[in-house]
Specification:
The protein has 204 residues and is an all-alpha fold. The chain contains seven helices and no strands. The chain is globular.
């Protein structure tokens, strides 16, 4: 028996099914996307408030909520994988992308930013925008791509502001940290709620 040669249309159908499966998984687990959006938004606002009231010794503590958040996310997806079976290739790729972002953001937030102020914040925004735009492109989900591109531009704005306009990069202007909250709103919260709305509409 001769092996069947895969046609271009067959390849496109497989890719389309993978993308739709990836979208469905995001919708089924959309609360994780929104969960991180609200978590980071809270941390950035709390950070700003503590700085404004001159609690310089503890202004960084709101970001500790990301540690139990990461543990919860890991446990949740482990349980989901156990109940639903093997993850698809795009799910693994997306997961690797976001875990790499989380690792780098954590290292920058508690390392680089501690010594060099919001230069680290600018780099985190660039990475967040990059991860969101790539994942949105993989899923062909425009709101995530647009949010990622805007956040990426905010990151470069932050670096430019710190390096060109604001000379004291250690004692940075407090408003910069709010850009992280804005970035996570653009990359996680808004796309997350749009995705949930579309998913709920399909179920009707």
């Amino acid at each position: 028996m001769k092996d069947k040669t895969m046609q271009p249309s067959d390849s496109m159908e497989i890719i389309t099914r993978m993308i739709e499966s990836r979208k469905t998984n995001w919708n089924d687990n959309g609360h994780i996307l929104r969960f991180w959006g609200w978590l980071i938004l809270f941390a950035s606002i709390a950070h700003f408030v503590l700085l404004e009231f001159q609690f310089y010794q503890i202004f960084w503590t709101p970001w500790l909520v990301t540690i139990p958040g990461a543990i919860y996310t890991f446990v949740y997806f482990a349980r989901m994988k156990k109940s639903q079976g093997k993850s698809g290739f795009l799910d693994k790729l997306s997961g690797f992308l976001w875990w790499m972002f989380a690792f780098n953001a954590f290292a920058l937030g508690f390392g680089f930013t501690f010594f060099f102020g919001h230069l680290g914040t600018g780099i985190i925004l660039i990475l967040l925008g990059f991860a969101s735009a790539i994942d949105g492109r993989i899923m062909r989900f425009r709101p995530m791509v647009i949010g990622g591109l805007l956040t990426n531009l905010m990151g470069f704005f932050t670096l430019g502001w710190m390096l060109l306009l604001y000379k004291d990069i250690v004692d940075a202007q407090n408003f910069i940290i709010l850009l992280v909250g804005l970035g996570i709103t653009l990359t996680n919260l808004i796309p997350g709620y749009i995705m949930k709305r579309e998913f709920d509409r399909k179920k009707q």
